[in-house]
Amino acid sequence: MLLAGCNGNVRSGGPVVANVPLHYDMVLESYKNGQFLLDGALLSPEDLASHFRYLDERKKLPKTVLLKPSSESSVKDSQLRWFAGLQVTFGFTGYADLDGKLTLVNAQAHPDDKKK
């Protein structure tokens, strides 16, 4: 899947969010080597996508998801791109803590993907 705007604009991202949720349905943390932490479990990007598919099958997808740095690693561009892809695929509202600034992730599918 290609994502529109997933070049250098991904890191600059959307606007810094003024009205943020008090609670997120899911909180992901970045980890070393492009991995993620979810509720203490270490997941590869593929494992995380599998978890979202599982939640989708059970009609329990989160509506709001926060990606934040862990004590081990800041959010890397590759993790942000993966997170944006999950947002497009599963339709949640994504937020990312990028260098201490909470940013609304506004990912969109590449126009060529809509034709398939």
TrEMBL record:
The domain of life is: Bacteria
Q: What is the designated name of this protein?
A: Uncharacterized protein
